[in-house]
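Technical appendix A lists one of the benchmark inputs used to test multi-chain prediction within the project. The record comprises two sequence entries:
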Amino acid sequence: MGDWSRTSPLGVSMENSEISSISRVTLSSSRQNHDSLYSSSLPLSKSSHNVLSAFCIEENVPQCILYINQELVSLGLASMCITTPVEATLNSVPALNAMYELLQAQRRSQRSLEELERDLLRTSSTLEHLQTGNYRLKDQLELLKREKSGLHEKERQLQLKIETLQSCLKSEKEEIQKLQNIIAGRASQYSHDAKRKERECVKLKERLGQLLIDKRDKKLAIDVLNYLGRSDGKRIQWKTGKAGTSHEGDMYKSLLNDYEARQQSLMVENSELKKVLQQMKRDMMYILSPHKPCAKGSPGDDSHERGFPPAGLEGQDEVGECSRENLDQSCEQAREQLTYSIRLQWRRLKNHMEKLDSQVSLAQTQQQSGSEEAVPREVHEEEMQRMRLEVQQGKDFIHTQQQLLQKQLNSSFDDETAALLNDCYTLEEKERLKEEWRLFEEQKGNFERERKNFTEAAIRLGHEKKTFEEDRAAWLKNQFLNMTPFVDRKRYSLSDSQSALSIRSEPELQQSYTPAKLTKSSTYTEFSTPYSSISAGLPTTTELYRTLHLIQPDTRHSKRGSWQEPSSPIRAENPFGKSKRSVRCRDPCILSLDKDGDSPI
Amino acid sequence: MNFSEIFKQSNQLCRISPDGRYLATCVQYRLVVRDVNSLQILHLYTCLDQIVHMEWSSDSLFILCAMYKRGLVQVWSLEQPDWHCKIDEGSIGLVSSRWSPDGRHILNTTEFHLRVTVWSLCTKAVSYIKYPKACQKGIDFSRDGSYMALAERRDCKDYVSVFVCEDWHLLRHFETETQDLAGLEWSPNGCVLAVWDSCLEYKVLLYSLDGRLLSSFSAYEWSLGIKSLAWSPSSQFLAIGSFDEKVRILNHITWKKITEFEHPATICSPKTVVYKEVEKRPALSIQDLSSHSVSSRSPLLAVQSKYEISQPPFQIPVVKPDLDRANPKVGVSSLAFSADGRYLATKNDNMASVVWVWNMQKMSLEAVLEQTAAVRCFQWDPRRPRLALCTGTPRLYLWSPAGSVSVQVPSEGGFQVHALSWHSNGESLVLIGKEHLCLCYMDTEDTSTDSNIWTK
């Protein structure tokens, strides 16, 4: 439809115009009842027929047909003529076709007309709208133009004002300057006058003073009952040059004292500050140094941070060392160095802190964004759980302990607490006592051992004595028999018994006898001496002991090899031989004594 | 806290002797010396005229009574009541009289500041010092009493003379770089002399004992300058109060400004404790009237006051000064360091009802005490960091770092405290009214609790 209306309008309009030229009435009527025309073409055709009835009457049918035919041809519809070519009569089929065509054309043209009318209306309304818009814009433009000019005017006025104000300011400034000058002038004038007046005043005062002095004011007097001593008890001194110098000295002394005190305080303060500085430096070094490895070790480290610490740190450490050495000298260089190193370290610390800060912020952002942190958090949770458990356990433990303690306290409150208190008070003493007790025990053990040794020795002695007795008996018998002709046989038997004795004693001596033996021997000598003194006539027993205990080691060492020799018993024989008689009665006595002496030990 | 009975006095002349044993008061032309503890009259001296000025000698043995109108000074001895001394300045007139630190010389300043006469009680000798300058504080003795600095004016220039007090030998005489010297003050250690210019110019000059200029300080130009000045007890700080409502603290090493304390109208810092005195007029019930007839005894007693701690921000009432008039009521007029030097109390004149306490260790505002009336006088306890102040009301106010308290002075007929002075041991306090005085005894232990009303 749209297509059609676009392509056809030219032809249709022509058609229309032609139709209109033929009959305006049709057009007007068609326009008049536009709606009805649209809804049904039949009434239109009827009405038009009525109107056109004047066109075709009975008489002019062929003309009409001809005319129509012509018209149709001109319209290009009559490819097949409505008229039969032979006679001018209406051929109905083509005529109807033509009519239909015409009707169709008519309808189309009407539709297009409608469209066009609508278009026209629309365009006219838009035109109107545009026109009003245009008017409005024109108005606006006008207004703006007016405004602009107004602003221009205002600006000009303001400019003018500024100019006037500036000039005003300038004049004000000038005024101020003038006033300042005036003030200065007045001030100088005032001061001048004041000075003049003051001078006058001074003059007057002097005059007054002079007059008063001249007048010899009688009233000017002091009336004292009796004079007072000086508050410090000293007598009044004459004003002398010496006094003046001493005053100067005093003054300088007091000044000096003040300065010294101040210097002292400053020195103290200085040293304090130095100390603080040093400590700060040390702390900083401490803070900085252990952090580095951590920073290095941490996996999520930036490369630049890893690169930063080592060189700088070492260098600063060196500086620190130097400064510390030099600080004691407290020279300026050292101070500079110290401050320099402090500054350096401070900067480092600051950098470090900043880095840490950035790291923290980085970590935070990571934590906020990343799901990677989920795993550590779980670990964290676990750790927390574990820690909580531990804490709980610890608490339980403490609780049970408390309960136990309470129970104990409740059960035996007095004794326990007393003991506890005693313990508290005499812990140290107890410790000492324990130590002493231990020593004592040791000693006791020693003594016990000694005693045992002694008893053993005594027993052995008894045995030996017995064997000796036997030996002696044998020997005596032998000797007795020696006088008889069987000498050789008896001597052999003696040597045999001697050897038996030596074998018994030897291993014991070798084992543990040696240390205890010395002491024992001394005791024996002690015991022996009185007896020897009492029974001076019986030296044989001591001789016996000596041979048994004191001389024995010697004999053992020296005669180890020769002990078995038959010659040695002969050497030992001699003392015994000297006191044959006494030994016999002494022996049991000595044994008993030995036992007595043993028991207390 | 206990209060003595009330005694009469005139011209607010009540002084406790330097040794702390006696209290001297003047009643018209009579001088009464009492024992501080028993308050019994020990001596009574009668002067020739109404006493205008009274001063103890440093050894507490003599009292000087000056009668300026008659140009007379009378000296009384405590040891020998018969002993008397009268100094007559004659027709030249007398404006000021004071003891020398040794207590054996009297320095009289004549009218028109013509000269200073030094009278010796030992030798009857008289010496004159010419050209003394008439100013705020023209004479100052060093703390140990060995030197005297005197401001002089000759040929329209300011000079300072330093005398040795022992024999009045002129030690140093030097010109100062001031336009119009207003005052001078020795540092407590006696080694530095602070000299300041008149209020037209902000200038402080610091001279060594030997007359060398150590330093000078000027905070600003043109507008009105220094109003008050105080040394810290350790000589470490010099506090300068000025008309711009600020206190500047100089240090003793570089003599440069360490800090300045402003006196803002609004206190915002939460670290500052603001004590605001609140007056209450209790509604008199019938019970009150019947049980203890307070109101019948004294209607003033009915007004009670206590301190309340205000929260920051706190607004301080400011009186706009009339700048057209001379000596405008603006700026820091009073400064006082506590005995241990840890606190500084100041008063700004356009906030007359407020005393400011500054912490010198933290260099910050410690406390603000706002009274209902203008503060008349404040003084530090010579032993403890404790500040006593009065406002011309029948109340005594005490501040200590632990707290602050307002105490009603029990009296009949409304004893209004106009001035106060501490006993040297810090255990009692002389409260001076218009024509009366009363002693206030502190409890030995400091039991000042916050905002309590202590009525006896």
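Confidence is low (pLDDT under 50) at residues 293-300, 446-456 of chain B. Residues 66 and 441 of chain B are 30 Å apart (CA to CA). Comparable benchmark entries are summarised in Table A2.
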